[in-house]
Structure formats: structure tokens, C-alpha cells
């Protein structure tokens, strides 16, 4: 697989630093390392392609490493958080509360209390959440700022993790939003906008374009119930990155071009309304790698196994256990043998006592020895924080932003 990193004398370089030096700096394998220049390049490309004024938010759950959140705080327009812990990460990075959207179907009373106190935008996902927030507003003598997360009444055709077009724990059904808006108008809350999240990990530009158009139409319809246009609409993101053989990168230029077409219509209907996209993996996924070390090599029934000190406790997604239906290999390299041709077919596994702990099945790799560094690409999102690090009581992986 092609990758965005440079190579020197057969060794992968991340942010200009030699992989072996990074292993020494981490103090141990396994570790994650993220290249900030790749994140910045992605943001620049987005800003160049998207119509002027489109706001970019980062969905912290993709990678909550505080240094990453801090890095992004200076470069993006806001954050989407889904817990009080994520909210604190965004606030700690110096983000103004009105730039933070707090979504999530199960916000606890304590979380809502902290969110109202902090003044972030609370994305209401049920009538109960609105009641709790209203009561907290009375208690604190403030007008909480709220948005409505809409469960879209359309479903998008293809790819990724689809949402919308049916029963869901997320958001308020589009058909119930007018009644909720009436209720909201009677309460001491400030209504800021709508949030439509229609899906994730989509590599098919026409699908994203259709989702954007339909989300915009849905929001314009809902906004007919308002006296003034909402301050913002958040159209979700859904931009995917290629993980598996045969997957092509998203044609992002097509998405941007289509936006230039439909955005003026939206601005005419809703003058002054800001348009927000919330992105997770598209911003950070390709900028990160997971690195573990080969600690043993053995042959069983004629097949070669490379056993590493890593595994699913650090990188659940690469093991195929984070929502994959058919297990496929994440792209894997031997990071210190990039000038050597593939010579063997081996199974790269983790160190846990479970057959689920696989990193790459039947990978074509150079002749690999104990001590070599296995690199899993496309690991900057849904890596460490989406993994069961307590499982089997091994130490957690280090994380570095270079
Ligand atoms: C997880 C999530 C995202 C980010 O998804 P990616 O696939 O990482 O881009 C965006 N919005 C909401 C509401 C989410 O829950």
C-alpha cells in the first residue's frame, strides 16, 4: 500500500524522525505516533477545496490524545464531544465553549450540569434531555445554549456505518422536531442550530454529496418552524479513508465542487446560518501508525507466525473486532525493511491468549526477524482509545505527536 511517509535506508520516517529513534524515544514498543504535518496538510486541502466559510469541527472520539486536541484547537473552528471527559479536553485546549457541541444519546445529569455550567452547545437528543437542561438553566440562572440533533428521515445508500432512515437511539426523529421546537420556544433556552449525522467511513463521493443535499433540505424544512434562521447547521461528516485492498481514497474534490453548487441555495433560504462539517478519521486517521515489535517467529503446520508485543488490547480495529463484518487486514509494513522485497507469507499476531488477536493474516512481507518493527498504517483514528487496554493487563502503548 502506498503511504504518505518518507523512507530512508529502508526505514520509515515519521515527521522526519527515524522509526527506530522513535521507538527509543517512546521507551518501549508498542506505541502510536502521529505526524502533525500530515494533519495540517489535510486541513489545508480541505480549506482549499471547500467553499469559503464552511466550518470544520473535529470529533474528539476519533483520537482524544490531548496533544492532538491541542494541535487541532488552533487550526479548526470547533469540536464535537460526546462525554464530559471529551468536553474537558476541548476546554483545556482553550476552545471557547460556544465552539463546542456536546452530542450523545445518554448524557448523564452530571454531564449536563457540567455542560450547562461551561456554556457549551448541548445537542438535544430527546425530550428528557431538553427538560433536564431547562431545569439546570433555572438552577444556575442562565439560558443554556442548545441544538437539536435530528435523526434523519432518509437513509443513505452505500458504504460505511449507516445511520438514519429508521429507528435509532441517536437524535430526535425528524417528524418529532417541530413539536420539540414548540416546546423549546416556551423554555428559557437559546436555540442555536440543527445537527444531522447520517453516517461514517464513506469513500463514495456521490453518496456524501447526496447526504449533504438531503441533510440541507431537511434542515431547511425544519427551519420553516423558526422565526429566525438558526445560527448553525452541522451536516455531519462521514468522510472515509481507505483501509483495505481495493479501496480508493475519497474523491474529495467532487464533494467540494458539489458544495459550491448547493450552498448558495441554502444561504438564500437561511441567511447568516453557519455551515459546519464534523470530521474525525478524515483529519487524523492517515497521519498515525501503530508500531509493535516481533518478539518471536515460529512455524505451525507449515505456516509462519510473527508474534509481536502488540495486539488487539492496543488496536482493536486492526484486529477486525471493532465493527468489521468480514475480517480484512489493515495495511502492514515491516518498518525497518522497506527496501527489501516481499519474500514470505506470514501471519502477524499479537501477544494475547485469544485467537481474535490477529494483526495481519497471510501478509506478504520481507524476511522478518525477531526485533523487527511491525507498522500498522491508517491508525491515527479509533486506535488506542477504541481498544480494551486493560484486557490481559499488559502495559498500555505510548503515544507521540511529532
Ligand atoms: C464519531 C462521530 C463522528 C466522526 O466520525 P468519523 O467517521 O471519524 O469521521 C462525527 N460525528 C458524530 C456525531 C460522531 O458520533
UniProtKB/TrEMBL annotation:
PROSITE patterns: ODR_DC_2_2. GO terms for molecular function: diaminopimelate decarboxylase activity. The active site is at 353 (proton donor). Keywords: Pyridoxal phosphate. Residues 39-284 form the Orn/DAP/Arg decarboxylase 2 N-terminal domain. The modification N6-(pyridoxal phosphate)lysine is found at residue 61. It holds the Pfam family Orn_Arg_deC_N. One of its GO terms (biological process) is lysine biosynthetic process via diaminopimelate. Its cofactor is pyridoxal 5'-phosphate. Gene3D superfamilies: Alanine racemase, Lyase, Ornithine Decarboxylase, Chain A, domain 1. Residues 31-380 form the Orn/DAP/Arg decarboxylase 2 C-terminal domain. CDD domains: PLPDE_III_Btrk_like. Belongs to the Orn/Lys/Arg decarboxylase class-II family. PANTHER family: DIAMINOPIMELATE DECARBOXYLASE, GROUP IV DECARBOXYLASE. This is Diaminopimelate decarboxylase. The lineage of its organism: Bacteria, Pseudomonadati, Pseudomonadota, Betaproteobacteria, Burkholderiales.
